[in-house]
Amino acid sequence: MVINLSEQHSLVSNWVSELRNVEVQQERMRFRLNLERIAEVIGYEISKKMPWEEKEITTPLGTSNSKVLAEQPVLATILRAGLGMHTGLLNYFDKGDNAFISAYRKHNPDGSFDIHMEYMSCPEIEGRIVIISDPMIATGSSLVKSIEFLKEEGNIKELHIVCAIACTVGIEYVKRAFPKATIWCGDIDDEITAKGYIVPGLGDAGDLAFGAKMQG
Q1: Exposure class string for 42-74: b at 16+ Cβ within 10 A, else e
Q2: What is the mean pLDDT of the chain?
Q3: Per-residue pLDDT tens for 24-67?
Q4: Beta strand pairing status for 62-69 and 52-59?
Q5: Who's near 67: CB < 8 A, 6+ residues apart?
């Protein structure tokens, strides 16, 4: 399942427009905040699909039967660009466990690139709900490799993928690899360049959030 929140003309589409805007992009804090906001809204929508249970809560004046999450998810993200959206999800799933994955494109002289995986730190994920965030799904290669890397540690019961902008090519690639996953997008673009960049997209989310990195 693929869910594009911009089709609902909610505040998400407003925040996505700011992410894309070259003038607004000059403000790194605002860029990070918009990623965080989008993830918070998506986290709220995901929570509606998660299992809940009744719990008796003691108040100063009596007791209340309340609905609470029956289980906490594992929040995973791909360093470094994913940190903004990860923060948004963690704001809402504040008791969730966390996983961090290092995956990046290593560009070759011919213009192609390989995905390098260098690091992962994760909790027990066997039989758990996993929510993984990455601002951009372009080709989908780094995301698929990251999820496969996670699955080496255990079977995922339910998988949610959270992004700000996705490309149709990348979505199809991810869906072929994980057909049961739910992909939550701030917006979806149809074009991708030969070098794997989304058009119109927004540029390099990691650089815009945290500053330009050294090339190599």
Answers
A1: bbebbeeebeeeeeeeeeeeeeeeeeebeeebb
A2: 90
A3: 999 999 999 999 999 999 999 999 999 999 999 999 999 999 99
A4: antiparallel
A5: 52, 53, 54, 55
Q: What is the 3-state secondary structure (H, E, C) of 17-47?
A: HHHHCCCHHHCHHHHHHHHHHHHHHHHHHHH
The C-alpha torsion from 18 through 1 and 44 to 98, rounded to 10°, is -90
Local structure of residue 138 (DSSP, 8 states): S
Largest Cα–Cα distance in the chain?
A: 70
| Beta pairing class for 198-199 and 191-192 | antiparallel
pLDDT value of position 52: 94
Q: How far is CA 205 from CA 54, 55, 82, 110, in A?
A: 40, 41, 9, 24
Q: How far is residue 120's CA from residue 105's CA, in Å, rounded to a whole number?
A: 16
Residue 192, pLDDT score: 92
Secondary structure percentages of the chain, helix, strand, coil, to 5: 35, 35, 30
Alpha helices by DSSP H, listed for 123-204, are 141-151, 168-177
What token pair was written down for 144?
A: 């698929």
- pLDDT tier at 211, thresholds 50, 70, 90: confident
Closest CA to 78 of 21, 15, 150, 166: 150
The highest-level CATH class for domain 2-49+71-210 is alpha beta
| Contact criterion met (CB below 8 Å) for 159 and 147 | yes
Token couple for 201: 């997209």
